[in-house]
Write a structure and sequence with these properties.
about 170 residues, alpha+beta, five-stranded antiparallel beta sheet, three-stranded antiparallel beta sheet
Length: about 170
């Protein structure tokens, strides 16, 4: 695995075939190498947020790393290795979804209101989160990336798209 800079040019954009790939599981022997990527992904979220005014998480395939890894960076970076999702009920909500791989496009999708995520953390310890609302939606979006599924694939209909233009500072 090669080292990456944290510039926005490192985010794969819609149309790149690597965004449609399935990721492979992370194994403990890869943690030292992946630790560097986690730091870079966390920095990339901050850079994206400064440019677009949004961005809380990124999945490894969005930087061309085909591993089951999600990084969330809201207050502090958190790495989720090999996450699995489950849903406690079938209630779904409609919302406008955005993506770093198509930063100016919003997509109307349906997502589960609640989810449970199990994963390994940076210390390879088991973690279990029960999420609802926007955090549930966020994890579902990033988890989809690990399976080669994009928000555009979940559009509720052909008119479920709109442009987003960030405010200029």
């Amino acid at each position: 695995m090669k080292s990456l800079d944290v510039g926005l040019e490192n985010i794969l954009l819609l149309g790149d075939p690597r965004l449609r790939e399935n990721c492979s599981p992370v194994v403990p022997e890869e943690l030292d190498v992946l630790d560097h990527f986690v730091d870079q992904m966390a920095s990339l979220i901050v850079t994206f947020r400064k440019t677009y005014g949004k961005g809380r998480a990124i999945a490894a395939p969005q930087i061309g790393l085909l591993k089951n890894l999600i990084v969330i960076n809201i207050d502090n970076p958190v790495a989720l290795y090999n996450p699995t999702l489950s849903f406690p009920h079938n209630k779904q909500v409609e919302l406008w979804d955005d993506c770093m791989s198509f930063p100016n496009l919003m997509v109307r999708v349906k997502r589960y209101d609640k989810c449970t995520v199990n994963f390994k953390d940076r210390d390879w310890k088991d973690q279990h989160w029960e999420l609802e609302g926007d955090m549930s939606e966020l994890l579902q979006h990033e988890y989809d990336h690990l399976r080669g599924v994009l928000a555009i694939d979940r559009a509720i209909d052909k008119d479920a798209f709109k442009w987003f233009v960030p405010a200029t500072p």
